[in-house]
Amino acid sequence: MINKILIANRGEIALRIQRTAKAMGIQTIAIFNEADQHAAFVKQADEAVLLEGDQLSDTYLNIEKIIAIAKQANADAIHPGYGFLSEQAAFVAACSQANIIFIGPSAAAIAAMGNKIAARATASEAGVPVTPGHTGTSEELMAHQADLTFPVLIKAAAGGGGKGMRIVNQASELKAALEATTREAKNYFGDGTVYIEKYIANPRHIEVQILGDQQGHIIHLFDRECSLQRRHQKIVEEAPSATLTDAVRQKICSAALQLAERISYHSAGTMEFLVDENLDFYFLEMNTRIQVEHPVTELITGVDIVEQQIRIASGEALGLQQKDISINGHAIECRIYAEDPEENFLPAPGIIRFYEEPDLSHNKAVRIDGMELKSGDSVSDEFDPMISKLIFWHADRESARQAMVAALRQYHIKGIQTNVEFLTGLLQEPDFINNQISTKYIDTRLDQILNNIQNRKQSINRLILLAAALTKSLQTEACSDSSIWQQIGFWRHDNALKFEWGDQIFHTHILKNEHRHVSFLFNEKLQEATLGWLHGIDYLLTVNKTSYPVSVFEFSPGRYEIGVEGMLYRIARPDISAVDGVVFEAAQTAIKNPETVTAPMPGKVAKINVKVGDSVKKGDTLLIVEAMKMEHNILCSADALVDRIDVKEGDKVGATTLLIKLKTLSSH
Predict the structure, then answer these.
(1) 95, 246, 336, 339: least buried by Cβ within 10 Å?
(2) Which of 289, 311, 335, 401 is catalytic?
(3) Catalytic site includes residue 353
(4) Counting beta carbons within 10 angstroms of the beta carbon of residue 115, is it exposed (0 to 12), middle (13 to 18) or buried (19 or more)?
(5) Is the dihedral of CA 138, 140, 145, 149 positive or negative?
(6) Reported pTM
(7) Which CATH class is domain 132-198?
């Protein structure tokens, strides 16, 4: 059995591997770059070694350096997690040459499935359906332009994780899309080869989890539905799929085993398929590693996939037979991201002011696989913006959905923008409840989903918001000794108070405030309220003998974020916030200067498409900023001339960094 594992990864997957290794009595070694030196996965490892360098190529992608650390630490094996080097055949070969066990498949299997073009050919040879398409260099693919029926999908041959993919709707977009996908593929995967395939309308993304040992025994752990995606990256996953019939489930799982047997696969792996509206399925790709969404499969089967990976890598035969595996209940996973859904999921790195996960210690049917962040920690712009994964199991899909919504309402992350409120709303959409979704659902319905969330927020009883902010502000005053003015309150001469929510103003009049009980007038009626602390920023608000669970976070004196049923509201009491010298910011409505092009988030300049003196039109891509493993096109907002370029390719930029200065043509 393996005694010591170096984990060639970071964050939540490193912690996940550590938990299973510890349960098996196996020591772990963490490797980390300078930005991760205070992370939980570093602190919880038995040993931790710094990877010096500023670029990923110097740290988490440096095969030579990682192998040297493993040898020096006497590691028996390396677990690659997902991403980074997990699907690099060269890494497997380097491990073998150093007599270190690679916890994953053979180099041959990775080579066979890692290149999507080769994988499609292998799948066809194994009798597994694939979507029709073209392969070749960018120039060769451009030559097929006249033969293509749009829309088509361009994909990186070595891609994965939603990276290196672009939909092309018309012929005029093909050349630029090929160039961008090729560049992204080369940056992330070291291989710029791409291919074009038929784009299936309204497809489902269904995958099958498999396990194979080195003795040739292969089983499946059934299927997962991963159709809810943004920018081709999953954010909600379920097991099993509620879409498949029993007959189709049997066929798709059999096809997965058929392909795995064809390449003599061992370790954990995932066969991914597109399923059309007729439930016909097509092989998409194979991920020769553990998947981000593996917990949902673990919860419905009771199988620890990481443990099985370790045992298989140690040479053990699978202790499981296919007849031993059955589906028990339903599991849903939500990925918690640092991003802004209202800005097309723009990454939102930064410092976390307050962090609290749902208190679910009493519930064995739930998991939180995360980075174990705490208040004061930061989310870096160098890596994927995923903070954690919240996973619920229940006897049926609807019960799991309801439990997930309740838990999301208890998830508090303040100081940075996250998708928690969006996920809470998404899981309450009738289309999700009725399983009327596809991989295009979020992209095509985003405005509608956001509008539905806003409509729910606008339907709130304003009295709840006012009572929460009022009682909290009075409690804070009673406990504060920072300012005599905050203690006595400017309202006390006439007991009148004003609160602001966006462009709405609430007026109230205090009648009594004692022992956490407040009597006040609102809408010319007497109101009674108390605010009882539960834990963290969770409170029980009682208004006129009716109780409401709420969260109340005070950003600064007089500025509050109130959470009600998973919806967030920014409320200000201006007499306090004005004293503190802080202006309460409502929704961001600043008018952007079309002549000043700034970075929307911290990142790195990947490409500059213009030069000084160029004439550009509204909608043209001026440059590309790479952040959190995604490329973001910075577009021109008006017809203009390029007056000045303040950055060069490869430069790191902060949020609001000036990139390009334009002279709009209308100003001449």
Answers:
(1) 246
(2) 289
(3) no
(4) buried
(5) negative
(6) 0.82
(7) alpha beta
